[in-house]
Design brief:
Layout (H helix, E strand, L loop, with lengths): L3 E3 L3 H11 L5 H19 L5 E7 L4 E7 L4 E7 L6 H7 L4 E2 L1 E6 L6 E7 L8 E5 L2 E2 L3 H12 L5 E8 L1 H10 L4 E7 L2 E2 L5 E2 L5 H6 L3
Parallel strand pairs: 1-11, 4-5, 4-6, 4-8, 8-10, 9-10, 10-11
Antiparallel strand pairs: 2-3, 6-7, 12-13
Helix pairs in contact: 1-2, 2-3
């Protein structure tokens, strides 16, 4: 069964509070999301497999650990997910990056696919799907399904803010995918926005309406 991890860290909570404030502009919003993504990357990579290797320091030979096995891929859901990529790449600079384009139909509130581009070896990688908001869970669930159709078997979902409804949908659709979020908010409003949330993450990232 999948596990929901709420990353309860004082610096993440502090930076998220700044992001939520209506007066925070696009420049600061981007920077804060970048920093939170890097901090969350520490937790989401905690269980990466390691192996022992023999090295030589300036003082002596020793046995040390390094990451082994599968490599990482970061897959943002466009467009807001782009704001989380650089933070993770600063933590794991050798990761490859794929892209999934989904938008929410304004009438049905269901996700519609318009773009998908992946590294050729995506099925051999540990994949971290990133999207700041886990609202209905529809986009995240569809993105994960698209990756599974391409042979991916080790997938994690990383979001900034979620609601129980979205988390429950992803966990029901994909019981093999763990979810990592920074905060679990109260509910969705009639327009399927997270309450209290932080508004439209894509618009706040890029200064659009």
């Amino acid at each position: 069964m999948s596990t929901l991890h709420v990353i309860d860290h004082p610096m993440i909570a502090h930076k998220l509070t700044l992001m939520r404030e209506v007066g925070t502009g696009a420049k600061d919003f981007r920077q804060l999301l970048n920093e939170i993504s890097m901090l969350m990357g520490y937790e989401i990579t905690r269980d990466l497999p390691t192996e022992e290797v023999e090295i030589e320091t300036p003082v002596a030979k020793m046995t040390a650990k390094k990451v082994s096995g599968k490599k990482l891929a970061i897959v943002p859901i466009l467009r807001a997910g782009l704001g989380m990529v650089d933070g993770l790449l600063s933590f794991v600079p050798v990761a490859k990056v794929g892209h999934i384009g989904l938008y929410r139909d304004p009438e049905t509130h269901m996700p519609v696919e318009y773009y998908c581009k992946m590294p050729p070896d995506i099925s051999e990688r540990i994949v971290i799907v990133v999207d700041p908001m886990l609202a209905t869970g529809g986009s995240a669930s569809d993105a994960i399904s698209m990756l599974k159709k391409r042979g991916c078997t080790n997938i994690k979902l990383m979001c900034l803010v979620g609601v129980p409804e979205g988390a429950e949908k992803v966990m029901a659709d994909h019981p093999d995918v763990d979810i990592y979020i920074a905060a679990m908010d109260e509910k969705l409003n009639e327009h399927k926005y997270i309450v209290p949330g932080l508004g439209d993450a894509g618009d706040r990232l890029f200064g659009t309406k």
